[in-house]
Amino acid sequence: MAPLLETRGLRASYGDFQALFGVDLTLDAGEMIAVIGANGAGKSTLMRSIAGTIRNAPNDILHRGTEIGALPAPDVMARGIALVPEGRKLFPSLTVEENLLVGTYGRKIDGPWSLGTVYDLFPVIAERRNYPATALSGGQQQMVAIGRALMSNPEVLLCDELSLGLAPIVIRDIYAAFPRIRIAGAAIVIVEQDIAQALKVADRVYCMMEGRVTLSGRPSDLDRSAIHAAYFGAEGHELA
Amino acid sequence: MNWLDTIFQGILLGGLYALFAAGLSLVFGIMRLVNLAHGDLIVCAAFLILQLVSALQINPFIAALIAAPVMFGIGWVLQYHLLNRTLGKDILPPLLVTFGLSIVIQNGLLESFSADSRRISAGTLESASLGIGVLSAGVMPLLTFASAILVVVALNQLIYRTALGRAFRATSDDVATAGLMGIRPNRIFATATGLAMVVVTIAALYLGTRATFDPTAGPARLIYAFEAVIIGGLGSLWGTLAGGVILGVAQTLGAAINPEWQILAGHVAFLLVLLVRPRGLFPRAVD
């Protein structure tokens, strides 16, 4: 059976600048994988390519065996692939609750997630449902961004740099929600610069450098020096 | 007492200017598009209503009901296939294209309907009036003002209470992120322009029944619409209504002092508001 989500030799460019050079990745139903790597490794480009904000060759990305690489973002979203974008990107003209509701615009299906269950997952944002979204703290905004993506009851939840700019204690609160999101049925891809955090929560880890996957496997099978080499580049490679 | 009546007539006239302006305000609020052909589209809708009235021998209000969905369709197609291509970081292309469109519409109307001044007959309604206490007002101006309030209330309900309205605001904030919500910005923009054309049809109904119009009458309507939007503050529909009223009152007061001053007084009021409140009376959030 075809995996839930798969990239095959995924290439992506911004004009003349090529950011991804043949990325292979698979995600099975119920899985949680992490993509780690330094700034500029291509992690966000990978997320944007899957979500459809960057167009790719049709057969570079497959969802349940169907080619989706060339689909625009609204079509990808309607298939059940939701992105929590880097920097949260809440809509400032909308209240917290309206931000959540707008998440269902292109995909209204019955599932585990609704306003009630999202507020249950993040009670702190329920108290502020009528505030403008940008009046919340960074951590609360991140919760709204995750809730907004969950509202469409996605099969795949893509999370780009959830920890960016947040205090460790806030990051811990946010990651505490993930076991419940997994139990509810979504497969999850997180992009994370914090290696320890990624190794702790993910079933499998992909490490990227300069637009390529340099290492992948289960956290228990990877040793620190291999990760270090895959993340920063081997010393020998740098000297060469 | 005479002054009170003059101010009252000015307020009612403001309803007409608010109707001219509401569509412009809606479109600008959602996609930052300044449609220089807005006035010509009002005149175009007035000719459409006129044609329906004379061809089918129907009441102009019924004709407007038929014209509204037609204008919605014209607005949708115009936005989806032409104006969407001009939207981007550069503000010049939409101005140039809608300026050109304005000329095309004027000349198209001139070819089709000649340069004669026209008027849509509303029968006995035209001269009917009501006494309100010491004031008396024409039924048509009262209907115009009531329609303007109804349009502003309806548009605000749509924008702040419905899923479509949330999509309007989300797209206005951030087109790329709106796409991640399954919103197709090009369709949202087309729907917004279609709605603006429905408001334009209502404006055209009152324009055509209250005064004469000809194919070149558009740009003057556009100026009043612009002034009402800017006095009110960009993006606020109630502000647009207030802007229309200020313009209307200034014009009737000016005309009461000296008939030659009517148009001038409106423009002077506009400039005074800009001097005191450069961003208008009720500007929406900073952007």
Automatic annotation (TrEMBL), chain A:
InterPro entries: AAA+_ATPase, ABC_transporter-like_ATP-bd, ABC_transporter-like_CS, BCAA_Transport_ATP-bd_LivF, P-loop_NTPase. One of its GO terms (molecular function) is ATP binding. Pfam families: ABC_tran (PF00005). Residues 5-235 form the ABC transporter domain. It comes from the Bacteria. Belongs to the ABC transporter superfamily. This is ABC transporter ATP-binding protein.
From TrEMBL, chain B:
Signal peptide: none annotated. Belongs to the binding-protein-dependent transport system permease family. LivHM subfamily. The chain crosses the membrane at residues 6-29, 36-55, 61-79, 91-110, 130-159, 188-208, 228-249, 261-278. It is a multi-pass membrane protein. It is found in: Cell membrane. The keyword Transmembrane helix applies. This is Branched-chain amino acid ABC transporter permease. InterPro entries: ABC_transp_permease, BCAA_transport_permease. Pfam families: BPD_transp_2. Keywords: Amino-acid transport, Cell membrane, Membrane, Transmembrane, Transmembrane helix, Transport.
